[in-house]
Amino acid sequence: MLRNGLYIISTPIGNLQDISARALEILRFAPIIACEDTRVAKKLFTLLGLPLSKKFIKYEDHSEEKQAQNLIDLINSGAAVALVSDAGSPLISDPGYKLVRKCREQNVYVTAIPGACAVITALQLSGLPTNRFMFAGFIPNKDKARADLFNELKNIDTTLIFYETAPRLLKTLEQAALVFGAREIAVARELTKMYEEVVAGDFATVTAHFAANEPRGEFVLMLAPPPSAPKFEITDVRGILQERLHQTSLKTAVKEICSQYNLSKNEVYALALELKNE
Ligand code: SAM
Question: pTM, whole model, 2 decimals?
């Protein structure tokens, strides 16, 4: 018997076997399934051999506020509600966060059953740094909005991850190359499915691949962090600091060297004093 509450259930992003045992159990016993599209959810239930004898309730972004309260009322009347999206992890570029927020505000029990998520699967396969990454959702369709987003993100020192659709991939690669320039990138396609593919390299290589092989299916685009600025040691600037101390004040020379070589003020100042006293 499931306790009443909201169960956020991840479903497969391609390979049906990626459903977890816990997800199967909750989907089997929850009397109410909140889903993006009832037909897609029912199809998934059929494929997974789950009973269809339950209430499927459509839950969309634009009606989220009203629908959220309806679902919470059902939970408060004793129901377990399972939230699924068409594929993958609910709330990740899919509806649900307002529902969770409302549950929290109203002290309604919420739990998540983790599972497939295209962002994480793509990152794992990309070969790009995973210690810090930023998922930026879908790339906007309009040229200006897309360019604005890229410019906003171009100096962020993490791997960047986007969702993209097949018809827009080449255009996006072309525009991204103008803003991000010489970066390593990776495009993951059809993850966990028969034609799963990850193409990595510079913009020219990856673009050439998809120009020759028409993009088909579902895509995740990833960009490596910006190349880090060359790192300087205090010993590297001894000569130039000495020269500048002959030409300008100690304060100005220290300021210039700090900003030019990205060194700490304390260590440059100490070196400047040492050089002055020599
Ligand atoms: N909530 C889902 C998740 O957990 O990944 C994402 C839903 S979002 C509406 C759909 C987008 O996710 C697709 O357009 C694509 O960019 C990406 N995606 C989903 N499944 C994928 C797959 N099997 N391979 C590559 N990308 C996928």
Answer: 0.84
Match 């895509």 to its residue by tokens: 219
Q: Which position has the token pair 């991939």?
A: 169
**Cβ count near 259 (within 10 Å):** 11
Q: Residue 76 Cα, ligand 1 centroid: separation in angstroms?
A: 32
- Residue 172 CB neighbour total at 10 angstroms: 21
How far is residue 235's CA from residue 223's CA, in Å, rounded to a whole number?
34
Query: Measuring CA to CA, how many Å separate 179 from each of 146, 175, 220?
Result: 10, 7, 18
- Copy the structure tokens of residue 191: 């993850």
Atom of ligand 1 nearest to the CA of 189: 25
Q: What is the pLDDT of residue 159?
A: 97
| Tokens of residue 40, six digits | 């897609």
Give 49-64 as a DSSP string: T----SEEEE--STTH
- Per-residue model confidence as pLDDT tens digits over 99-111: 999 999 999 999 9
Nearest alpha carbon, ligand 1 atom 2: 88
